[in-house]
Write a structure and sequence with these properties.
The chain is α/β, with parallel strands linked by helices. The chain contains 9 helices and 10 strands. It has a 5-stranded parallel sheet, sandwiched between helices. Strands 3-5-4 form a 3-stranded parallel sheet, sandwiched between helices. A two-stranded antiparallel ribbon has the order 9-10. Helix 3 (87-90) links the parallel strand 4 (68-71) and strand 5.
């Protein structure tokens, strides 16, 4: 399916999703930390329901059995939640049977905004390479979108977006605009920790949550699967090795 008129575009922020409603597969990326947390939970066998706000979490929680409330808003864990959106903490929990409801400042808003698009994928550095192959075989047009925060396209998300777009370009996709080409070129060949000077990392440092950074850097391309949003739930699709 690749090659002929296939294209990829990199964009940022939850609001940008509306440009890609028709004909695109959307890839939502929030490396620190929402999409890493979602991918980590689901790969462990835990169900995951991303929601854009606490208000949206309540009706979802009401129909689930003992849901685990996971997330942050503005960097703080909401009142009554079980844990912040920490992938490092999530892997230490043994209550995998409890479905996770995930809320974050921008990542889950991005996912929610894309919910009615043709195809929505959840990606992070754990499954970027597996996803490239999956997308190249199934989609003609792909929009890789970073969650962004406070008006900034975060470096860790740029890196992950660039990695996926570059992989698709190698498979014959064309970059749709100059920004896409520029982001891919900026990160091409850079080491996997090239983005660790970002504001998100600074926040983790200040708030003593660096174990999430360590977790992310220690889990690169270790999950050979694609993750899609289906009926409000993140589901795992194995990718053939």
């Amino acid at each position: 399916m690749t090659g002929h008129h296939s294209s990829v575009v990199i964009d940022c922020f939850p609001d940008s999703v509306r440009r890609y409603r028709d004909g695109y597969a959307i890839v939502a990326i929030d490396v620190i930390r929402a999409t890493t947390t979602a991918v980590t939970g689901v790969s462990l066998g835990r169900r995951c329901f991303p929601v854009p706000s606490i208000e949206h979490a309540l009706p979802v929680a009401a129909r689930l059995d003992q849901p685990l409330l996971v997330g942050e808003l503005g960097g703080n864990m909401p009142f009554g939640f079980d844990m912040t959106n920490s992938p490092a903490e999530l892997v230490t929990r043994t209550d995998v049977s409890r479905p996770m409801i995930l809320v974050s400042s921008s990542g889950t808003q991005l996912i929610a905004n894309a919910a009615d698009c043709d195809a929505v994928y959840i990606a992070c550095l754990r499954n970027a390479t597996a996803l490239i192959e999956h997308l190249a075989e199934r989609h003609k047009r792909v929009a890789v979108i970073g969650a962004g925060t406070r008006g900034e396209f975060r470096e860790e998300d740029q890196y992950c977006c660039a990695r996926i777009a570059e992989g698709l370009m190698t498979a014959g996709f064309a970059a749709e605009d100059a920004q896409t080409t520029e982001v891919v070129e900026r990160w091409r060949g850079k080491p996997v920790d090239a983005w660790t000077g970002s504001k998100s990392v600074e926040y983790l440092r200040k708030s003593a949550q660096l174990r999430d950074l360590d977790f992310i850097l220690a889990h690169i391309d270790d999950v050979p699967a694609a993750f899609m949003l289906k009926h409000g739930e993140v589901v795992l699709l194995p990718v053939s090795e």
